[in-house]
C-alpha cells in the first residue's frame, strides 16, 4: 500500500471491534483499490484455549478415508501432524468448512481426484461470507482432513495434495 487511507484506519478498528464482540481469535481481509493500491490486514489475538482447540480438532482431522494396507504405512507417519506434510493445503482463515457448493450438491473434490491449480477444492465460511479455497497447485487429492460443516482455525490443514 503506497499511503494509508483514513478509511483504512477506521476499517481496521472496526475489524478489531468485530473480533472482540464476536469472541473471534482472528480475522484476515484483503481488498484492492486499484492496480497498485491494496490493503492486506490480519487482526489476531491470542487466547489460552486456542492450543487446546487445535488439539481437540486434530482427531477429527486425522480420520482419513479408508486406505489400502500399502498406503497406510506412509499415511501413519503423516497423521501425527498433517500440517507438516509438503502437500498440505491449509486454511487461510478461521471459519466453517463446506465440501460442497450448497447443501445436497456433490462435493468439490473426492480422494483420488486430480485437481488443477486454482480449482476450487472447498469453501470456508467466515462472517457469513463464503470464501472459495483454490488448489495452490495441480495434483491428486491424497486425503481430505476435514468434515463438512466442521470449524477450522487459521493454518489448519484441510487437504493433502500428492
TrEMBL record:
Residues spanning the membrane: none
SUPFAM superfamilies with a match to the protein in the record: Single hybrid motif (SSF51230)
Chain coiled-coil ranges: none
A GO MF term: acetyl-CoA carboxylase activity
Function per UniProt: This protein is a component of the acetyl coenzyme A carboxylase complex; first, biotin carboxylase catalyzes the carboxylation of the carrier protein and then the transcarboxylase transfers the carboxyl group to form malonyl-CoA.
Taxonomic source organism: Jannaschia pohangensis
Highest taxon of the lineage: Bacteria
Domain Lipoyl-binding: 86-162
Pfam families to which the protein is assigned, alphabetical: Biotin_lipoyl (PF00364)
Protein name: Biotin carboxyl carrier protein of acetyl-CoA carboxylase
NCBIfam families named among the record's database cross-references: BCCP
Lipid biosynthesis keyword on record: yes
GO cellular component: acetyl-CoA carboxylase complex
CDD domains, alphabetized: biotinyl_domain
Record-linked InterPro entries: AcCoA_biotinCC, Biotin_BS, Biotin_Carboxyl_Carrier/Decarb, Biotin_lipoyl, Single_hybrid_motif
Keyword Lipid metabolism: yes
This protein's UniProt keywords: Biotin, Fatty acid biosynthesis, Fatty acid metabolism, Lipid biosynthesis, Lipid metabolism
Composition bias type Low complexity, residue spans: 60-77
Single biological process term from Gene Ontology: fatty acid biosynthetic process
